[in-house]
Amino acid sequence: MAAAQRIVIENCSIATVDAQDTEYATGYVVIAGNRIESLGAGKAPEGLENVVRRIDATGHLVTPGLVNTHHHFYQWITRGLATDHNLFNWLVALYPTWARIDEQMVRSAAQGSLAMMARGGVTTAMDHHYVYPQGSGDLSGAIIGAARDMGVRFTLARGSMDRSEKDGGLPPDFAVETLEGALAGTEETVKQHHDASFDAMTQVAVAPCSPFSISTELLKQGAELARRLGVRMHTHGSETVEEEKFCHELFGMGPTDYFESTGWLGEDVWMAHCVHMNDSDIAAFARTKTGVAHCPSSNARLAAGIARVPDMLAAGVPVGLGVDGTASNESGELHTELRNALLINRLGAHREAALNARQALRLGTYGGAQVLGRSAEIGSLEPGKLADLVLWKMDTLAHASIADPVTALVFGAAAPVTASFVNGRQIVEQGRLRTVDEDAIARSTREEAQRLARIAAQA
């Protein structure tokens, strides 16, 4: 790092989210190239060379960048529909529209989804994309390109479906792939785009959609493919009571046992939702170190229930936060999920002891990094880790009277982002994206939403 250009951030509160939850009331962070070089209390060290910028962060809290662990970007252009439905009826209502997406729509929707998260403090995003209609173009490439242009760190969970209406599934027949096509398309995406290096900006996971829309063989062969290629695995699990019933009727066992029977538990696996988990399910996740993407707003929006996050954490299950698709979480923001995770879990059995502010922040940072398999690189502020961090402005009307900045961030209103750095590069300044034109994205997403609505109506 000796010859690297340095950025010095000073006079800020710092929540490192390291193993000791180290915090500094007033401190500094030194970025050298794309790494965190040093941080601590008081002023930055004297005599630093190649300092190209000094930031006086008085009135700010610096945290690790937020890590999103579950999303469906394409849904950005179907927001505000089926707003009073449960999961199953919501899927029935929207699949006929989703089945008609194309590359241009997906690129625009990905830009909208990424922009909303990035300007709200997300530095690592993921997208579980599983709708690949025939003749729709290079959807994976469009999504990855949108993330690259915006400058966020990104995991594409390359999804798939092979159980359509004719097989008792929900998607239209032309919106699913064959078993062979899904596996081949997934392998090609991994080989073309996955970067296994420490500072990788793009990674790919193998991600069949859910028990409702995939065959057992796709699950089994998907797991074999992922482990042969050395990448992570993602799917939906235990989201609703209907899924529990479906698995018992079709497979003679609950979702967790079914996933274990197909090779889908392990430290290289994370699942979205996991709302309806009994004690033995949680024990199985803890034993195998299977991760969970907790999506509190979407679970509430679709009336799915309250995930047992405190019990998962107590058992040692890795848990991160997810926005989920923006057709079931229309805000599309992850920083609001810090607050919602805390509040919703306090409605559960543990009440006020369920989560505190620092546990919520950990879910959105280090917990997410664990779930994505990147806790050695991101998720906490420590020397040698990648320079993914956020400066939250905490001295405005919304937060200034709350003495503890972490409490203010989690319990208070959504805090403004003065600056967000990914890989040492600033991508947000004063709440606006520096890398893309937000207004152009807004126009594009509106146009593509209207175009998709017209196509769906004609069909």
TrEMBL record:
<dbReference type="InterPro" id="IPR006680">
    <property type="entry name" value="Amidohydro-rel"/>
</dbReference>
<dbReference type="GO" id="GO:0019239">
    <property type="term" value="F:deaminase activity"/>
</dbReference>
<dbReference type="GO" id="GO:0046872">
    <property type="term" value="F:metal ion binding"/>
</dbReference>
<keyword id="KW-0862">Zinc</keyword>
<keyword id="KW-0479">Metal-binding</keyword>
<dbReference type="InterPro" id="IPR050287">
    <property type="entry name" value="MTA/SAH_deaminase"/>
</dbReference>
<keyword id="KW-0378">Hydrolase</keyword>
<dbReference type="InterPro" id="IPR011059">
    <property type="entry name" value="Metal-dep_hydrolase_composite"/>
</dbReference>
<feature type="domain" description="Amidohydrolase-related">
    <location>
        <begin position="61"/>
        <end position="425"/>
    </location>
</feature>
<dbReference type="InterPro" id="IPR032466">
    <property type="entry name" value="Metal_Hydrolase"/>
</dbReference>
<dbReference type="Pfam" id="PF01979">
    <property type="entry name" value="Amidohydro_1"/>
</dbReference>
<protein>
    <submittedName>
        <fullName>Hydroxydechloroatrazine ethylaminohydrolase</fullName>
    </submittedName>
</protein>
<dbReference type="GO" id="GO:0016814">
    <property type="term" value="F:hydrolase activity, acting on carbon-nitrogen (but not peptide) bonds, in cyclic amidines"/>
</dbReference>
